[in-house]
Amino acid sequence: MPHQDDSIAAKIEAFIRTEVIPYEKDPRTGPHGPSDELVQELRDKARKAGALTPHILADGSHLTQRETAKALIKTGLSPLGPLACNTMAPDEGNMYLLGKVGSPEQKSRFLGPLVSGKARSAFFMTEPADAGGAGSDPSMMQTRCRLDGNHWVINGRKKFITGAEGARVGIVMAKSDDGACMFLVDLPNPAIRTLRVLDTIDNSMPGGHAEIDIENLRVPADQMLGASGEGFKYAQIRLSPARLSHCMRWLGLAIRANEIATDYACRRQAFGKPLVDHEGVGFMLAENLIDLQQSELMIDWCAGVLDTGSLGTTESSMAKVAVSEALMRVADRCVQVMGGTGVSTETIVEQAFREIRAFRIYDGPTEVHKWSLAKKIKRDWKAAQG
């Protein structure tokens, strides 16, 4: 008997393949991502198809991580799929965080519009490297907040803030005397100013990645998530599921790229036979199947750990490294198999390569996760020595 998550995944896949993929050459996608007009047009279609925000059910409950994986992999079959289905970053992670730690009032005001797909959000954490700000090491955070009456006043600079342009909800991280804090803010706000939107290797996320100046932003005290100094604790709640969601979505994109490369290799003739019959090409496609299968299993394993209630910090680091590196190999082979066509915009294969290359950095680069795992290995070894 099919499970509910299987029927959700099937519905999403049908929607992506029939309704979303035809939009992939829509001129409303530019260097800084799809326009909000395009986003809302696709979300209207998803709403009618029953494919909008599929990971959050009508009663407000959340699919398990294993169930979420089935859905989000399917939304990733097109670069436009996650934004059409409202499962894209950073919104999916922000919805998860608010659902876990937001007060009833905060959920009503900030989470509701996100779940409905009528608003986008941004997560303001990363800071400029040239000023020594927070990146992979969030403890370097320089954005400060101080209590002034019943408001907090925030000042600082942020960079690589995905989706800030056009977002309606912001989660701002800053440091008080107690430690890291998170604040919910309505956007736009005159105290939050976009300095520029960066030109980056990827362009699938609405609003692009912005550099932001925050000057004397006043936030009511009841818009702080939790208590002063608890920001990093809440970041950990969001972190592992968000890492894994990236793996899910980009696995879907790599699956689609491999479909396109396979179709090309089976149709294209060279040296007297189809490309797929040449061992060099056939072996690359075979290696793709191995990497895709291993990625799916790694996601399922980590999702199972998270579903036990564990933070899954170690497991999500392992999954993020394994999946991002494997999918990069898949995307690279797809480009190689398709030759000149692979590096052109004739198909989404070149975009998949660009997006997945960025994935190796987003939510912690491979090297940071390996370093973290190496520290755990040493701790465990010391503990075993007594």
UniProtKB/TrEMBL annotation:
Gene3D superfamilies for this protein: Acyl-CoA dehydrogenase/oxidase, N-terminal domain, Butyryl-CoA Dehydrogenase, subunit A, domain 2, Butyryl-CoA Dehydrogenase, subunit A, domain 3
Keywords: FAD, Flavoprotein, Oxidoreductase
All residue ranges annotated as the Acyl-CoA dehydrogenase/oxidase C-terminal domain in the record: 229-376
Pfam families: Acyl-CoA_dh_1, Acyl-CoA_dh_M
InterPro entries given in the database record: Acyl-CoA_dehydrogenase (IPR050741), Acyl-CoA_Oxase/DH_mid-dom (IPR006091), Acyl-CoA_Oxase/DH_mid-dom_sf (IPR046373), AcylCo_DH-like_C (IPR036250), AcylCo_DH/oxidase_C (IPR009075), AcylCoA_DH/ox_N_sf (IPR037069), AcylCoA_DH/oxidase_NM_dom_sf (IPR009100)
UniProt keyword Oxidoreductase, yes or no: yes
Cofactor(s) in the UniProt record: FAD
Acyl-CoA oxidase/dehydrogenase middle domain residues: 122-198
Family to which this protein belongs: Belongs to the acyl-CoA dehydrogenase family.
Protein's name in the database: Acyl-CoA dehydrogenase family protein
